[in-house]
Amino acid sequence: MRGNTHVRFGGAGRGNGRSEKTAPRPGPIPTDQTGPTVPVEADHRAHAQIELVISDLKEGSGWAHMPSGLFGANAAWLAIGAIAHNLARWTARLGAISTSVITTPTLRRRFFAIPGHLTRSARRNTLHLADNWPWRQKFLDALERLRGLEVCLT
């Protein structure tokens, strides 16, 4: 790092319902930002999302099945998992499903495995959703946003 490098010590964050063993430990945060510690730490944590992506890839997209003994099998899991992860992320972002970070298993449980069925009559497809499904309106709003996107082929 160039310039003024400061080392700030972050708080433990024990009041978040985690046990003593799984709660984050206070530690130094190397940064070149100046200012009060709390906003600098919040900015640092907002940018440090790679751990969430890795755990999401392992738990939600099938990377937990690697490594296999075969190179080809690992390559296939890697490619398919990355494609599934990216499709889920872009669907959530373009459909404006959540304003916060949402994991792939949550997306799958709430929006991809929907309680409903498709019917076809008079050359028209109709989606019938359960009336008491808690994410019904949010799903329909996201579906309308996704249908309203224009495809630009250049």
If you had to describe this structure to a student in words, what would you say it looks like?
The chain has 154 residues and is an alpha+beta fold. Among the domains are: 1-48, no CATH class; 114-147, no CATH class. Helix content is 44%, strand content 13%. It contains 5 helices and 4 strands. The strands form 2 sheets. Strands 1-2 form a two-stranded antiparallel ribbon. Strands 3-4 form a two-stranded antiparallel ribbon. The chain is extended and about 65 Å long.
Sum up the structure in keywords:
154 residues; alpha+beta; two-stranded antiparallel sheet; 4 strands; disordered N terminus
Question: Layout of SSEs?
Answer:
Blueprint: E1 6-9, E2 28-31, H1 37-47, H2 50-60, H3 71-94, H4 104-112, E3 116-121, E4 124-129, H5 136-147
Antiparallel strand pairs: 1-2, 3-4
Care to give the gist of this entry?
This protein is α+β, with helices and mostly antiparallel strands and 154 residues long.
- Main sheet summary: 2 strands, antiparallel
The N- to C-terminal Cα distance equals 40 Å
Number of helices: 5
The overall pLDDT, averaged over residues, is: 77
Task: Please state the overall shape, judged from the principal axes of the Cα atoms.
Answer: extended
Number of strands: 4
Task: Give me the secondary-structure category.
Answer: alpha+beta
Residue runs with pLDDT of under 50 for 5 or more positions? 1-18
SS strand fraction: 5-15%
Strand/helix succession: EEHHHHEEH
Secondary structure: helix percent: 40-55%
What is the topology, as strand order, of the major beta sheet? 1-2
The gyration radius over C-alpha positions equals 21 Å
